[in-house]
TrEMBL record:
NAD(+) binds at residues 130, 191, 214. One of its GO terms (biological process) is L-histidine biosynthetic process. Gene3D superfamilies: 1.20.5.1300, Nitrogenase molybdenum iron protein domain. Binds 1 zinc ion per subunit. This is Histidinol dehydrogenase. Belongs to the histidinol dehydrogenase family. Substrate binds at residues 237, 259, 262, 328, 361, 415, 420. The gene is hisD. It comes from Hyphomonas adhaerens MHS-3. Zn(2+) binds at residues 259, 262, 361, 420. The active site is at residues 327-328. One of its GO terms (molecular function) is NAD binding. Its EC number is 1.1.1.23. Pathway: Amino-acid biosynthesis; L-histidine biosynthesis; L-histidine from 5-phospho-alpha-D-ribose 1-diphosphate: step 9/9.
Length: 440
């Protein structure tokens, strides 16, 4: 049974604000644990990574190569069944098509002062892609991380994924080879994020770390940010469904559980204008939980972090959804297009009754690495842009320089930066006297 809220209750605002502020760390001091692991990895490199890999994943790896004799990508991939390879190829091509369409253009223009301005997009040199692997195996995350990096033109793509007790799905291995990963290390958690950020053994540091993971992985990415780039905080999965009387309660229950089953720290929320739908979904969740192999962690997620919120109308539903800023928002309503403009903060939106979030997890082509923990208020999901940077470019002609110089000079004086002022004035003299060799 999840918690219920009703916006018409007098204590709604107090209870809802408290709910919004809750951490989903389930009793762990995640920040402290991760800081210690990162310190150790920075100080001791491969030795620390090997030690934590033995402790958390029960896998022995070589502290120099960070490899294990038990995990061989090519051998594993050979065991991937043909129909699963075909599904991975299908997803790969759809993800490639979607992300190819995201490529931005370089741009330049000359303004009325005679100054040429613009920007150029260039790709990152090296990225680390985190593929989760603690509780489940994620070939789909291999593709979501790697395909856009490849399309962007990243030179070196380093994949890490934990292989608990040396076990790794053949599909993960096949997806890695299919997508074109350059290096692979069977490591996970904060120690893998540290190895990517600081370097460890033969693993040279990367420029940016992307990809989803549990609370430890998400926190480790947050702590190394600045030393390296990161995409966003893509932690334990979340789903928020807005449903009206046209929604099918069994379908909504299945969608809520599809994210609850990822992790006990996941969060599933139903917002509904219809009391009967709310009650029917709650019952359907209880019934479906009993049939799931992942029912235990899904039940923990639903009872600890889940919620059903009863609202007066769809406008109120949108306001509340925007405050939550969930990773995934499904609009299971009669007019999803009418509702879409009201949704401002969400990692990804799924329209109508036949677009379950799980379709986007695998094969619509859009990226499933998405902001969680309300980070959708200020960031977007993984995309081609994450593997590109925008460089500004400018050129002033002698006339353009003359038009801009007086204001620049005045600002340099106001900031009391005489070398800046001289860098302008030394040229102002040259522009007035072309004989001094200014070449524009
Ligand atoms: N937001 C997204 O885009 C997105 C996408 C896919 C998956 N996910 C999330 O990824 C996560 C996958 O989690 P997972 O656990 O299966 O795999 P994971 O690879 O993220 O985490 C496994 C690692 O966690 C570390 N760990 C576990 N318990 C620890 C402890 N007590 N102290 C220190 N480190 C510890 C271990 O090093 C282990 O290797 C789920 O939360 C899922 O919801 C999110
Ligand atoms: N729902 C996850 C993102 O939160 C992605 C995923 C991968 N496999 C299944 N689901
Ligand atoms: Zn999922």
């Amino acid at each position: 049974m999840a918690r219920t809220f009703n916006t018409s209750a007098p204590d709604f605002e107090t209870r809802f604000s408290r709910f919004l502020g809750e951490q989903r760390a389930d009793g762990h001091d995640v920040g402290g644990i991760v800081a210690k692991i990162l310190d150790e990895v920075e100080a001791r490199g491969g030795e620390a990574v090997a030690r934590y890999t033995a402790q958390f994943d029960e896998l022995q790896i070589d502290p120099t190569t960070l490899q294990s004799d038990n995990v061989d990508l090519a051998a594993l991939a050979a065991d991937c069944p043909a129909d699963l390879k075909a599904a991975i190829d299908f997803a790969h091509d759809r993800i490639a098509a979607y992300h190819s369409a995201q490529r931005p253009s370089d741009h330049s223009f000359t303004d009325e002062a005679g100054v040429e301005l613009g920007w150029r997009w260039t790709s990152l040199e090296s990225v680390g892609v985190y593929v989760p692997g603690g509780r489940a195996s994620y070939p789909s995350s291999v593709l979501m991380n790697t395909v856009p990096a490849k399309i962007a033109g990243v030179d070196r793509i380093v994949m890490v994924a934990p292989a608990p007790k040396g076990e790794m799905g053949p599909a993960v291995a096949y997806a890695a080879l299919r997508a074109g990963v350059d290096e692979f290390y069977p490591i996970g958690g904060a120690q893998a994020v540290g190895a990517l950020a600081f370097g460890a053994g033969r693993l040279a540091p990367v420029d940016k770390i992307v990809g989803p993971g549990n609370a430890f992985v998400a926190e480790a990415k947050r702590q190394v940010f600045g030393r390296v780039g990161i995409d966003t905080i893509a932690g334990p999965s979340e789903i928020l469904v807005i449903a009206d009387e046209t929604a099918n309660p069994d379908w909504i229950a299945a969608d809520l559980l599809s994210q609850a089953e990822h992790d006990p720290s996941s969060q599933s929320i139903l917002i509904t204008v219809n009391e009967a739908v709310g009650r029917a979904v709650d019952n359907a969740v209880d019934k479906q939980l009993k049939t799931l192999a992942t029912g235990e962690r899904a039940a923990r997620s639903w009872s600890t972090h889940g919620a059903i919120i009863f609202v007066a109308d769809l406008d109120q539903a949108a306001t509340i959804a925007n405050r939550i800023a969930a990773e995934h928002v499904e609009l299971a309503v009669a007019d999803p297009d009418g509702m879409l403009p009201k949704i401002r903060h969400a990692g990804a939106v799924f329209l109508g009754h036949h677009t379950p979030e799980a379709l986007g997890d695998y094969v619509t082509g859009s990226n499933h690495v998405l902001p969680t923990s309300r980070a959708a208020r200020f960031s977007s999901g993984l995309g081609l842009y994450d593997f590109l940077k925008r460089m500004s470019v400018q050129r002033a002609s002698p006339a353009g320089f003359a038009a801009l110089a007086p204001a620049a000079l005045r600002l340099a004086e106001a900031e009391r930066l005489p070398a800046h002022a001289r860098s302008i004035s030394i040229r102002s003299n040259a522009v007035q006297d072309p004989g001094t060799g200014d070449d524009g």
